[in-house]
């Protein structure tokens, strides 16, 4: 018989997390009951518990974000840590980060969320709606949106009204936008409306079709990434700065590199490839070559780039082109900054005597280039057979969480505690999981 007993009054947060993790691990291995009504009830109960777990998780993430602990572990931002360390999708990481940053302003919502009377979906919707409002408007918006929750509006309706709240505030301040003259715009045509505000600024709203959205993402996405540890802007602010940079001509023109063998250009069938490894049919590569600038990229045995020159300190343009073809992203594992926007890094460090030779260079983003220079002992370097370096960041040894006394496999010495203040879970010997 395996059991878990925890004193809710005296247990530490770490002990509660350990018990919750143990219960979740056991629950995940259990087969679902055959009864659909029972599964429906279990789903509703477990979903409510998961919502309260998300409330605790938002508190933990908020402390990590405020303390900027992730920078000591080699991550440029909290959102990057959530994506790469916890495996969250971009939208999910952004949603949880927004909740952790707004929960201190949404006191009533937080209290109801922690007590289980408001779901995670409503909480994230309201937090996203007030993220760019000042404190006064945030309080008013919280009251209005929670009122909609009490009236059983769906999360989608609350989100729609949350977007409308910003327009209501603009109307109140005399900065509203004129109504759209054509409310039946064709969805295949992109559109953007701009209206000048009273203080000389400009409001922008619109919609991009799939093709134009891909251009937007490809041009602004890389420029909207965090610049480093001191970059406290949110994604919306970084996107605005990226758009301004492009409009002013302060960005680098986009280029596409197609790598192929000489035999392919002269009629061979070996496929070419893009810098990220995407294959290109030989015939298509020849069509591209007819209207593009073609320059040779010499490859040695095993497709390892040969030496393209040597300078005393900085890589040559030819060396950089080779590195961009070899490294589609920053050399640090998990970093997604494109190679074209990275800096050339001496693998063994220029100050330590590393030469500026092609097989001693790689690409890292500006933030990780500086981080590696100040934390060389925390970078594990490997090299693949095709000549590409990979940096794996090691956690700070002194910052590891203190070891906690592990739970004896499903057994904790019981205490004499009134039933309302303890949790006791007992698992009988294994039986047929499908038995009634």
UniProtKB/TrEMBL annotation:
<feature type="compositionally biased region" description="Pro residues">
    <location>
        <begin position="416"/>
        <end position="436"/>
    </location>
</feature>
<dbReference type="Pfam" id="PF02720">
    <property type="entry name" value="DUF222"/>
</dbReference>
<feature type="domain" description="HNH nuclease">
    <location>
        <begin position="317"/>
        <end position="370"/>
    </location>
</feature>
<dbReference type="InterPro" id="IPR003615">
    <property type="entry name" value="HNH_nuc"/>
</dbReference>
<dbReference type="InterPro" id="IPR003870">
    <property type="entry name" value="DUF222"/>
</dbReference>
<protein>
    <recommendedName>
        <fullName>HNH nuclease domain-containing protein</fullName>
    </recommendedName>
</protein>
<feature type="region of interest" description="Disordered">
    <location>
        <begin position="400"/>
        <end position="436"/>
    </location>
</feature>
């Amino acid at each position: 018989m395996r059991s878990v007993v925890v004193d809710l009054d005296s247990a530490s947060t770490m002990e509660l997390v350990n018990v919750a993790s143990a219960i979740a691990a056991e629950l995940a291995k259990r087969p679902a009951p055959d009864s659909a009504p029972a599964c429906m009830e279990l789903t509703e109960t477990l979903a409510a518990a998961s919502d309260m777990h998300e409330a605790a998780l938002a508190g933990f993430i908020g402390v990590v974000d405020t303390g900027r602990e992730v920078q000591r572990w080699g991550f440029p931002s909290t959102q990057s840590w959530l994506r790469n360390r916890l495996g969250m999708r971009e939208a999910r990481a952004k949603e949880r980060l927004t909740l952790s940053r707004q929960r201190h302003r949404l006191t009533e919502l937080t209290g109801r969320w922690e007590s289980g009377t408001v779901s995670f979906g409503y909480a994230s919707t309201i937090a996203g709606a007030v993220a760019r409002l000042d404190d006064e408007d945030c309080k008013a918006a919280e009251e209005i949106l929670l009122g909609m929750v009490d009236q059983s509006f769906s999360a989608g309706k609350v989100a729609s009204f949350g977007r409308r709240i910003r327009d209501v505030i603009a109307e109140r301040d005399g900065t509203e936008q004129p109504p759209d003259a054509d409310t039946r715009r064709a969805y295949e045509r992109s559109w953007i409306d701009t209206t000048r505000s009273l203080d000389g600024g400009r409001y922008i709203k619109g919609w991009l079709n799939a093709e134009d959205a891909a251009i937007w993402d490809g041009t602004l996405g890389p420029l909207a990434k965090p610049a480093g540890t001191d970059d406290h802007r949110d994604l919306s602010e970084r996107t605005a700065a990226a758009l301004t940079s492009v409009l002013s001509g302060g960005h680098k023109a986009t280029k596409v590199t197609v790598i192929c063998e000489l035999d392919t250009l002269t009629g061979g069938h070996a496929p070419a490839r893009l810098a990220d490894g995407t294959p290109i049919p030989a015939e298509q590569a020849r069509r591209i070559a007819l209207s593009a600038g073609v320059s040779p990229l010499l490859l040695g045995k095993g497709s390892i780039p040969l030496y393209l020159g040597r300078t005393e300190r900085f890589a040559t343009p030819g060396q950089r082109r080779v590195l961009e073809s070899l490294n589609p992203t920053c050399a640090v594992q998990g970093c997604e900054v494109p190679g074209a926007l990275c800096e050339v890094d001496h693998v063994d460090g220029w100050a330590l005597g590393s030469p500026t030779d092609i097989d001693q260079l790689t690409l890292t983003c500006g933030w990780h280039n500086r981080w590696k220079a100040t934390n060389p002992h925390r970078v594990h370097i490997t090299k693949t057979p095709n000549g590409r370096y990979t940096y794996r960041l090691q956690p700070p040894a002194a910052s590891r969480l203190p070891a906690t006394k592990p739970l004896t496999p499903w057994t904790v010495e019981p205490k004499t505690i009134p039933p309302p203040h303890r949790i006791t879970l007992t698992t009988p010997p294994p039986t047929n999981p499908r038995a009634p």
